[in-house]
Amino acid sequence: MTNSSTYEAVIGLEIHAQLATQSKLFCGDATLFGAAPNTHISPITLGHPGTLPKTNQKAIEYAILMGLACGCSIEKNNYFARKNYFYPDLPKGYQISQHTTPICIGGAVAIKTTDGEKNIQLNRIHLEEDAGKSIHDLSETDTYIDLNRAGTPLIELVTEPCLHSAEEAFLFVTEIRKLVRWLGVCDGNMEEGSLRCDANISIRLKGEKHLGTRVEVKNLNSIRNIKKAIEFEIERLIQITETGGTILQQTRSFDASNDATFSIRDKEDANDYRYFPDPDLAPFHLTQESIEALRATLPALPNALQKQWKHTFNLSDYDVVQLSENKEEVAFFIRMTQLSKRYKAIANWMLGPIRAYLNEPNAGYEKLYLALPYLVELIELVETNQLNFSVASNKIFKEIITLPQSPLAFATAHHLLQSSSSDEIENWVHQVLEKHPEKVMEYKKGKKGLIGLFVGEVKKISQGKADPKLSTELLEQKLAE
Ligand code: ADP
Ligand code: MG
Questions:
Q1: What structural domains and CATH numbers belong to the chain?
Q2: Atom from ligand 1 closest to the CA of residue 270
């Protein structure tokens, strides 16, 4: 008897990312999202006879940057090819794409699964232009066409069939979205269609080497839907196999209203797109120097930063993953670590009070940068037990950001410094023991765990100013009398 654990899912993803260029891949039309329909459609976009496309160099650079960040090798001798097919929103009757020479070859992107890090192998990344948009929901009877999007530069990133669960696909697309945003080559906004994904899914018996017949779920427009569509398909393909059916090679679509996929068409054998080199576009060649010049502009990447921080700052996996989520946060964290070696404390402040502050209205990094030396001083005061953390984060942090000022001066003026004067602490200890005679009895009878309660009480009446180590010592002394 077979069951679902007998099977292995095999998934390959094709991710389309719109490049964040100002203008289209082969003409000066704006790529702006949300413009009035059919307002960015020059004769070149429309493919009128006699027009000549001209390649946008920025788009080529962006594709190369993405390839370098993924460890791909970069093709030096490139040409664009026409991929011929008919579609209502494809005004030229062909799409300009790359065929035998994708600009980026191979490479891999690491994801962090619960079983550890896994490298997802890429097959290629190629450049192509986007089609226009068919709008089906404005009219009962007609389809409207908006060609603004036609000609927008895309990279298509194609993985090897090496993903094995919906969760892995989810992590991978999340990582790609983070990466394109990090590099600034695509805004990654899936709800606006800047990043879209087709998922190819098959199943096979575990241990089997051959690939099974695949289905392709087209145009998934959120990471959640990618996961749901794959989960649904794996289950469906197993059902078909278990009940003796045959899996058809199909193109399917995802219906988010019931979390299910449905067939759009049975895929015939390979489509014949009659590819040929675009005669209006000269082949383009890249030199090693130009590739190296681009490599030099690559920002430090999250995965590399994580490794480095783990190693040099001795931070946990959790901390380094959290701290490499966004570029502004990374820049600020790095700045702090240049001013102080209290790496773990800085990490805690970044992920605690600083993040909480940044979520507030009108908060921003400009203010944090202005207060930077004082922030470092504040952390130092806590680390040297001159200030209690909750007093520092709740009572002083905001003050030094609103008005950059020395936290030491502020704490002194407001009597917030942790007291290490034993007279003062002795006084608080005395008050606490007076207040809880029955607890003192219990402690003396052997309930030593009550020390925590006494320390807490001292902290409370001193409003956080009593150095907890000193108060513990004094309390223990007094209770032993
Ligand atoms: P096409 O261009 O016809 O869509 P490709 O061979 O370029 O086909 O593959 C597209 C994607 O499908 C790739 O990500 C590839 O890894 C994946 N893929 C191909 N065959 C299978 C299969 N049997 N099961 C799962 N994924 C597959
Ligand atoms: Mg495909």
A1: 4-290 (no CATH), 302-413 (no CATH), 422-480 (1.10.10.410)
A2: 3
